[in-house]
Design brief:
The complex is a heterodimer of chains A (396) and B (260). By secondary structure, chain A is α/β, with parallel strands linked by helices. Chain A is built from 16 helices and 15 strands. Chain A folds into 2 domains: 19-61 and 98-212, 3-Layer(aba) Sandwich (Rossmann fold), CATH 3.40.50; 67-95 and 219-392, 3-Layer(aba) Sandwich (Rossmann fold). Chain A has helices at 33-47, 50-64, 74-80, 98-111, 125-137, 147-152, 154-162, 177-190, 208-216, 218-231, 246-252, 273-276, 314-321, 332-346, 352-363, 385-392; strands at 19-20, 23-24, 70-72, 83-88, 116-121, 140-146, 166-170, 195-198, 237-241, 262-268, 278-282, 285-289, 325-326, 329-330, 372-377. In chain A, helix 4 (98-111) packs parallel to helix 5. The radius of gyration of chain A is 19 Å and the shape is globular. The model of chain A has no long low-confidence stretch (mean pLDDT 95). Chain B has helices at 3-6, 8-17, 34-43, 63-74, 79-85, 102-105, 109-119, 135-144, 160-167, 189-199, 215-222, 232-241, 243-258, and strands spanning 22-28, 49-52, 95-98, 123-125, 147-152, 172-175, 206-209, 227-230. The longest helix of chain B has 16 residues, at 243-258. Helices cover 47% and strands 14% of the residues of chain B. Chain B has an 8-stranded parallel barrel with strand order 1-2-3-4-5-6-7-8, surrounded by 9 helices. In chain B, strand 5, helix 9 and strand 6 (172-175) form a beta-alpha-beta unit. Classes of the chains: A alpha/beta (396), B alpha/beta (260). The A-B interface holds A 17, 25-35, 172-173, 178-179, 182, 185-186, 189-193, 279-284, 286, 289, 291, 294-297 and B 55-60, 62-63, 66, 70, 73, 78-80, 101-103, 105-107, 127-133, 150-157, 160, 164, 175, 178-180.
């Protein structure tokens, strides 16, 4: 059973306006304000209900595959001079950490009497997880996905359809994740009565960033106990990739109150909201955002569809502002190398998203000699194999 | 412009007092022909015009206004270019802007409000800035004499509406349906229902927008509301046929809502 958060934790609930420091809030069309308020009440009430938490834990144990295991990378570790331990969210049902959030949200949707869920997706991982949860719980599911991503993640599109979801290709704007979120929000505005908006990351209007973090915090809670069992100590570094930032918030949740553990969120160089962005307002939240000189949102460009997002969760902006977490970036080339390296040395094909964390680890290994690094392996790379076949063709 | 024209609310209240139904078309700023389209609105019976300042991620807009915004952005439009043109429009009706909050947040509310004031804009509509988040903008707008038009939606419980009305200046924007901007085959029942709820609690002019799609629907809506906003139906004509077609359409709606 998940422990509740102490009031003095750095991971406390946001304030009454849904803010973590200066970040967060609820910048939505008036039509959606009552829906966000209803969702906030429903979540707070469910989260405090032992019966809801038991049901969630049961589904995770019997369906999602929790707890996920930890794997020490002896080969990579010896090569880098760093003790490397992976939290294996890639072994979850549907292949990533996304299931942790959607099971929670789908249970909540049912509890609220909603019959349909609408979701956004980038790489398709959240879309597949949403379609899976909807199939399990008898909900209708519609998934919005940018046309660019529909093309580069054809396998996940087919998976969603196989699971009974209706996939809508989004042709507006940059035709990637941010536009899928816009279109899912527009759909929610028009269907707010019977439809539950199942956001895929720690982004959006309050209560989503808080709620999704709570649903993902199981990663950090398990890992905290597991790493102690494996090493007898806390890790020196916890590292995870950051697009919207849900897998990173999930694992950070277990360690944010451990001052000796360094928290590192790795952004893609082409979508570095914290690294290159300034505070802005989009998708219902105030957070770091890549934007041009007048405030138009810029298009993120990344090899990984799941990190192709110009914004970031508001709690990450807060952790960056107070100096509790750091947010370096890695290039697509470094990610390709890391993808290949982990596959060869450990027999683990990482998702391109997760390979960002591996890329940071390998690049910075000289500074990490003798340290223990806990890396969130947020997803598996099966979905990326076709794309990587083109990129690595001739080298393998 | 004299003060009467500069205050949108004063202008609309005076016209309402004279028995006139109010018509406010929306034109996407920066779309080719937008200036002439605004002049055509003014010449054909519009009581004010909403000028859209295009934003990259317009979550309250449907396909027509999205397409116009995207075309304007691809043409290189920026907010300052639109505002610079406003004094050259030379129309004798009040002008409002409609845009999304990031374009206000980026320069900061004070600077944005001052820019509007300098251009001669009377009022602003920010559809992704609900009551609870509106404090910093409203303070800056009030100080600069810019009227903030608030939106009320069919989903609002009764207790919420008077709080929205109390913060609204200019007029109260009654959202016609659950959904984003765009044309619909018929006027939703929610349009007249919400307008009636608002008329019962406020003396502000109440205008219905979102989903009021033609002259007949505008007539229907104005049997309950003080007026209508015409967005996608106007912008589609601008995109398909140009500013003259916008003028013809505004005249048609004007005639319809003036009928007894």
């Amino acid at each position: 059973m998940t422990a509740d958060i102490a009031a003095d934790s750095l991971l406390a609930a946001p304030d009454a306006t849904g803010r973590f420091g200066d970040f967060g809030g609820r910048f939505v069309p008036e039509t959606l304000v009552p829906a966000c308020q209803e969702l906030e009440s429903a979540f707070v009430e469910a989260w405090a209900d032992p019966e809801f938490r038991r049901e969630l834990a049961d589904v995770h144990r019997q369906y999602s595959g929790r707890p996920s295991i930890m794997t020490e990378c002896h080969n990579l570790g010896a090569r880098l001079g760093v003790r490397v331990i992976l939290k294996r969210e890639d072994l979850n049902h549907t292949g990533s950490h996304k299931i942790n959030n959607v099971i929670g949200q789908a249970l909540l949707a049912k509890r609220m009497g909603k019959t349909r869920i609408v979701a956004d997706t980038g790489a398709g991982q959240h879309g597949v997880a949403s379609a899976t949860a909807a199939a399990l719980m008898g909900l209708d599911c519609k998934v919005y996905m940018g046309a660019v991503d529909v093309e580069r993640q054809a396998l996940n599109v087919f998976r969603m359809k196989l699971l009974g979801a209706d996939v809508e290709s989004v042709e507006s704007g940059s035709r990637t994740l941010k536009d899928a979120v816009n279109e899912a929000m527009r759909h929610w505005v028009a269907n707010v009565g019977d439809t539950y908006f199942c956001l895929g990351s720690v982004v959006g209007p309050h209560p989503y960033p808080y709620m999704v973090r709570q649903f993902q915090s199981i990663i950090g809670e398990e890992a905290h106990a597991q790493i102690h069992e494996m090493t007898g100590a806390l890790p020196d570094v916890v590292v995870a990739c950051v697009g919207g930032g849900s897998n990173a918030m999930g694992i950070f949740a277990g360690f944010v109150d451990e001052p000796t553990t360094r928290l590192v969120g790795v952004e893609p160089a082409g979508g570095a909201a914290i690294g290159r962005g300034v505070p802005g307002v989009v998708h219902g939240m105030r957070s770091n955002l890549m934007q041009d000189e007048v405030g138009q949102v810029e298009e993120a460009v990344s090899i990984s569809a799941g990190l192709d997002y110009p914004g970031v969760g508001p709690e990450h902006s807060y952790l960056a502002q107070i100096g509790r977490a750091e947010y370096p970036s890695v290039t697509d080339d470094e990610v390709v190398e890391a993808f290949h390296l982990l596959s060869r040395t450990e027999g683990i094909i990482p998702a391109l998203e997760s390979a960002h964390a591996v890329a940071w680890l390998t690049r910075e290994s000289a500074q990490l000699q003798g340290q223990t690094v806990l890396l969130n392996m947020s997803g598996r790379g099966d979905k990326d194999v076709a794309q990587m076949m083109d990129i690595l063709d001739g080298r393998i | 412009m004299d003060d009467q024209v500069r205050s949108l609310e004063a202008a609309l209240r005076a016209k309402r007092a004279a028995g006139r139904k109010l018509l406010v078309p929306y034109i996407t700023g920066g779309y080719p022909g937008w200036q002439d389209a605004i002049r055509a609105c003014a010449a054909n019976g519009a009581d004010a015009v909403e000028i859209g300042i295009p934003f990259s991620d317009p979550v309250m807009d449907g396909p027509v206004i999205q397409a116009a915004s995207q075309a304007a952005l691809e043409g290189g439009i920026v907010p300052s270019k639109i505002l610079d043109e406003v004094p050259n429009l030379d129309v004798d009706i009040p002008l409002a802007v409609m845009t999304y909050y990031n374009l206000v947040h980026h320069p900061g509310p004070e600077r944005f409000a001052a820019n509007l004031q300098r251009a001669g804009i009377a009022a602003a509509i920010l559809p992704d800035l609900p009551l609870e988040e509106s404090g910093p903008w409203c303070a800056a707008a009030d100080a600069a004499g810019i009227e903030t038009i608030m939106l009320a939606a069919p989903t609002a419980p009764d207790e919420r509406l008077p709080r929205i009305a109390a913060r609204a200046r200019g007029f109260l924007y009654s959202v016609g349906l659950l959904g984003v901007t765009g044309e619909r085959a018929s006027l939703a029942e929610t349009a007249t229902d919400l307008a009636a709820r608002l008329k019962a609690i406020t003396d502000l002019p109440v205008l219905v927008g979102v989903g009021v799609s033609d002259a007949a629907q505008a007539y229907q809506a104005t049997r309950v509301a003080d007026g209508v906003i015409q967005g996608a139906s106007v912008v589609r004509r601008l995109m398909e046929s140009g500013p003259d077609a916008v003028g013809d359409y505004v005249a048609e709606v004007r005639a319809a809502i003036d009928a007894d």
